Amino acid sequence: MGFAQGDANYDETKVPKFTLPDLMTSFSGNPITTEKEWEENRRYEILQFFEKQVYGKVPGRLDEYSYKLIEENNKAYNGKARRKQVAITLKKNKKSVTYNILIYLPKKNPTAPVFLGYNFYGNHTVTNDPEVPITKAWVANNEAFGITNHKASERTRGVRTHRWAIEKMLDNGFGLATIYYGEVDPDKNDFNDGVHPLFYREEQSQPKTNEWGSISAWAFGLSKAMDYLENDANISNVIVFGHSRLGKAALWAGATDKRFAGVISNNSGCGGAALSKRKFGETVERINTSFPHWFADSFKKYNNNERTLPVDQHQLLALIAPRPLYVASAAEDTWADPRGEFLSAHYASSVYKLYGKSGIDTAELPAVDQPVQHTVAYHIRTGKHDVTDYDWEQYMTWAKTFLP
Fold first, then answer.
1. 8 Å CB contact between 32 and 45
2. Among 227, 194, 228, which residue's Cα sits nearest to residue 92?
3. Helix 245-256 and helix 214-229, axial crossing angle in degrees, nearest 10
4. From CA 391, how far away is CA 369, in angstroms rounded?
5. What does each C-alpha distance from 80 to 104, 164, 170, 184, 238 come to in angstroms?
6. What are phi and psi of 19, to 5 degrees?
7. Which of 94, 116, 265, 388 has the smallest number of Cβ neighbours within 10 A?
8. CATH (domain of 216)
9. CA–CA separation, 255 vs 261, rounded Å?
10. How far apart are the C-alpha atoms of 195 and 65, rounded to whole Å?
């Protein structure tokens, strides 16, 4: 059963007292004072903890990976964009999964930086472009979009254009690569489709206790997309982006795959950028109960037990250092705990300083619609849980300044 959002704690005075795990002290108590000590010791042990106890390990390697350019056109968006549609196929144990990347690149740039992000209802929903096929994969039912029987239809074309400022990206010299996350792993509480069954041994029907949940599977899909994108001559570098649950996946992808040049978390909340120990808005117990397939089963032992967690989400963010990181919140999105998201970015900044990079020095939440942009950036904007043109405008300004 799920929890109602209404009975969550939204009162700062009721946030429990807690001690935040120190980034600069190893699990065995040794101080971390240099970039080398961070890389070789502390970063590795934090990454391993998150891998085994939070998101879950990928249980092996693929037998085969391939990609195929399905379609290409140089006249998209009134001639300002080059469109590519690429199918990625993953094979293991004589089973396979194929998912599709929709790419728009600005023709004015021979090589462009690209935002890579998952979408929620199909590649055809992010654009009105009639050349983008409707996904055949399972999709969540949505009355407003006319989705029934878990099937997308022509009616859903372009229903999420407001979340993807594609023309603004193109005008600013950026490209977009997007994937429907349900083609990698359908977002439902079973493990009998998507990428998980590729790795099952005989008689296995779900991942083992410390193996990957859906967030880890989605992060894996992003990394496998990167295998194609890094070899595309029209792409200079890739910033991985995600909103909400897909922001959690983007952060984990950025932590586990250093090829991503930058990482953006948009309203990622609990299990994403927000500090778990604050127990503000959505909590570990709530998320593991409402969405038991997202995390490794081993994470469930911290249900209503956050105080015993030897890590917190500022340490996840620190795994991305020294690459640029942007955390964004929305003022009305209290479920995702904007203050907890901000404090994570603030505390992660100590690791960025080891590399000589600028982070967020103050622990005081900035004013609404007043971005703080360094190598670590943060804003809290007016409005609700969503992705807006305002968000994309900040991300592009920041990327132009801080991307390598």
1. no
2. 194
3. 60
4. 10
5. 9, 16, 7, 30, 20
6. -110, 125
7. 94
8. 3.40.50.1820
9. 11
10. 13
Rounded-to-integer distance, Cα 16 and Cα 398, Å: 34
Give the helix/strand (H/E) hosting 393: helix 389-402
Q: What gap in Å lies between CA 373 and CA 398, rounded to an integer?
A: 6
The residue whose two tokens read 């910033």 is 239
Tokens linked to 143: 């009355």
As annotated, the active-site residues are 244, 385
pLDDT score of 3: 65
Residue where the block lists tokens 């099952």: 200
Q: Is 102 exposed, middle or buried (0-12, 13-18, 19+ CB in 10 A)?
A: buried
CA distance 307 to 63: 41
pLDDT at 5: 77
Q: Which two tokens stand for residue 87?
A: 């199918």
Q: Which of 173, 170, 169, 178 is nearest to 75 (CA)?
A: 170
pLDDT digits (tens, 9 = 90+) for 199-217: 999 999 999 999 999 999 9
Query: Does residue 254 contact residue 348 with C-beta atoms inside 8 Å?
Result: no
Q: For strand 64-75 and strand 372-373, is the pairing parallel, antiparallel, or unpaired?
A: unpaired
Residue numbers in the chain where pLDDT is lower than 70: 1-3
What is the spatial distance between Cα 106 and Cα 114, in angstroms, rounded to a whole number?
Answer: 10
Own/partner contacts of 133-136, CB < 8 Å, gap of 24 or more, are 133/85, 133/100, 135/100, 135/180, 135/182, 135/183
How does strand 262-266 pair with strand 325-330? parallel
Residue 1 confidence (pLDDT): 44
Query: Strands 81-92 and 64-75, how do they pair?
Result: antiparallel
> What whole-number distance in Å separates Cα of residue 232 and Cα of residue 86?
11
Structure-token match 């090829």, residue found: 259
- Tokens linked to 375: 């190598």
Q: How many CB atoms lie within 10 A of CB 344?
A: 32
* Among 8, 1, 6, residue whose Cα is nearest residue 281: 8
**Is residue 74 a contact partner of residue 82, using CB atoms and an 8 Å limit?**
yes
Lookup result for tokens 């127990």: 279
Counting the structural domains of the chain, the total is 1
Distance of alpha carbon 275 from alpha carbon 283, whole angstroms: 10
Domain range enclosing 17 = 5-402
- Residue 238 CA from chain centroid, whole number: 13
Percent of residues, the chain, with pLDDT higher than 90: 98
